[in-house]
Write the structure tokens for this entry.
Amino acid sequence: MAAVALNGERVVVVLFIGLVLFSLPFSLLLHGVALSLLALSALFVEIRADDDASSSSSSLSLFKTRPGVSSGIFLGAVTLPVVMLSKLIQLSRALSLRQVPLEELEYLTMQYWATSASSLSVLVFLCMVIWGSPDRTRPPYTRSLVDAKLSLSGIVLFAVVCCVSIAATSHTGFHAVLKLLWVLLHGLAAVKLIQHVLSTFPSCASIGEALLVTAGIVLYFGDMLACTIAKVTGYVDSLELVSAQYGVKRSEISIIIQGVLLGLLLFPMVFKFVLRIWECSSISANSESRTYKIGKSLIFFASLGFILIVVIPSWMQFAQDFSVHPLLWVISFVFSEPLKRLSLCMYWVCVIYVSVLWFYNISKNNKIERILLRKYYHLMAVSMFLPALIFQPKFLDLAFGAALAVFLVVEIIRVWRIWPLGQLVHQFMNAFTDHRDSDLLIVSHFSLLLGCALPIWMSSGFNDRPLAPFAGILSLGIGDTMASMVGHKYGALRCSKTGKKTIEGTAAGITSMLAACSILLPLLASTGYIFTQHWLSLLLAVTVCGLLEAYTAQLDNAFIPLVFYSLLCL
């Protein structure tokens, strides 16, 4: 029974959490207790959910998750809270040296509680679905009853710890209530959003993957909403929803990226609403007619242009007080160092053109297996992002935002089959899909780009760990690629009876990441970075990252960079 409860993925996640808790300072003790309770609750919910999924009348069958994988609830529930706690550990070191103001720590603390509340609320929702199902096939006194009691106990204790921690850091009871309400709203939004994601995109993600995406989007939207509220009311200090972060001038690049990405995520709802109005007012709404397709296409591009040129820049100027239109600011930023940045753009265009053309021809002719073809894209990411991160990190931040915006627009065009590009994009993208993608939603390119970008974006501001921004590039571009290639060609010993990953591939991935770090550190030292991390902690981080890649059935492009980043911040 214990062996089933602690499979390879769960053991690695427990090790990951243990390393973070071991690094906690005393000032973050309550946060560590809360994370432990959240992890225990998530573990028991996942065990119960996986047992329930194996029954003939699964209560979770109403969610059509990605077939052939476990629920991933444990990993999905703890990943973002652990990332936030690792950042808190990093900022607490800076605060002790007086390198950051207290407001930054308070802001990140609210982010931690918000992500934890999102995960906890989804766990409560899953508990209600599982234990509220009319399944009479099980006897009343089984291990499921024990799992239910343990999960609910952990959830209640977590809520108590959260209330105590927030109350202890608030000036008055009113401020504490406002903060708790803000955290609760994140949880309610996460529950609503995960239902929408799983129903709108069936068979596209596991519950754990959907939980990670949901918690991230809710946190990002909440950050934007709090910034807007602070600007509207002008009472940042009295509201204390997210601390004084919103009274401090944030970077223009972060505002631009946030505005564009969230605007594009909301755009499909706007387009759907406008399209319905047009269809109701149109005499003929035959979706197969050429006139309808052209009209739909015109409405799409007109709505997209209005959102990108008018609506989003208006919010940016309101939130950041740009002296010029944000688009003009971007142009002036690029041309502030024209030789370096335009040369880098030309280099990227050449690499993308040659690589995509070559890979597409190989894919069409079936000259190479799909899994190896996809790993070549990981190597392409290394060749593109590594030089830029070393020499032009701010420009790379902006470039990642632009690339992700392009990916979102292209995917929306593909999903909605917008004439004349929709079908062509669909046929082209199908050449690079695998078993984790579906006809409805292709996520692999998003996960690779975000896996490389998120550690870089999260390292903006104070960062005393020079390898942390490289977490995505090292884990996906080097470690994951070498593990797949070596394991595919030379692998003989399986890591588990049910998985396809091999010991040889895992060893190659860990070794290649360590080798890349040993090469990268002297190069970073020559540009002024100081390596302050012990080699033993680096070895542990790389090992945990390699083991997670070997044992998890979840989308590794999404989880592994965040896990590696968290451990590098310690």
